């Protein structure tokens, strides 16, 4: 078996020379042998065996929903990909996914395909497709806001099994993820008011965090000290981290940390 890890959108050049079938077609027709496992949170492990005499290519679209045998742990593949499988070969791919409930346990489990689309997540999946540098954790939080309207405390509990406590709480990455997720939600679902954005603890910690402060001020409609007119903070489009080097506050902080000391 050849293990292959897919964490970004991948399109293989040799797929055009194979018979391309969608994952749903392969499940229905049995042309490929498929096995699905997940860790209940951010990974779907897809094992594909091609028993036929001809090469095949499996098209896996974004937004597929899977569940374990109890239907409790549901995940959605984030980005589309095409996976080539040679005759007689077995290929394993680790696909990025998001949990659709904060109750999802972090545990390996077999799962099955239950639906072709996740309508509630359609705007988020479209955003992720256009922004391949979008961190998985930020996508995860935005998805939980859309599906369960989680608060900051829910997000912290969800992260607890996978993260060590931050040495300085105000500088923890969960703050940056929350502010970025709110910025994305404002862009893709402008008519909604996420409970995350009403959280007093998140607001305070985001404003104290030097990395997220500018973004938080834009989100919460605040202005810098000494400025009389509100609403003058940079636009969210300027503040969201979209790619390395885009001069957002995250990139500025990284550049400042990497700068050589001033030897005056």
What are the SSEs and their pairings?
Layout: E1 2-5, E2 19-22, H1 23-29, E3 33-38, E4 43-49, E5 56-60, E6 65-68, E7 75-77, E8 81-85, E9 90-99, E10 109-115, H2 122-130, H3 136-148, H4 152-159, H5 173-188, H6 200-208, H7 213-219, H8 236-239, H9 249-258
Parallel strand pairs: 1-9, 2-5
Antiparallel strand pairs: 3-4, 3-10, 4-9, 5-8, 6-7, 6-10, 7-9
Quick structural overview:
By secondary structure, this protein is α+β, with helices and mostly antiparallel strands. Helix content is 31%, strand content 21%. The longest helix is centred in the last third of the chain and has 16 residues, at 173-188.
The biggest beta sheet is recorded as: 6 strands, antiparallel, barrel
Low-confidence stretches: 3-16, 167-171, 226-235, 259-264
Task: From the alpha carbons, calculate the radius of gyration and give it in angstroms.
Answer: 21 Å
Q: Which outline best applies?
A: elongated
Structure class: alpha+beta
The helix-strand sequence is: EEHEEEEEEEEHHHHHHHH
The count of strands amounts to 10
Distance between the termini: 59 Å
Q: Strand sequence of the main sheet, in spatial order?
A: 3-4-9-7-6-10
User: Number of helical segments?
Assistant: 9
- Average pLDDT, rounded to a whole number, is 80
Beta-strand residue fraction: 15-25%
What is the percent of helical residues?
25-40%
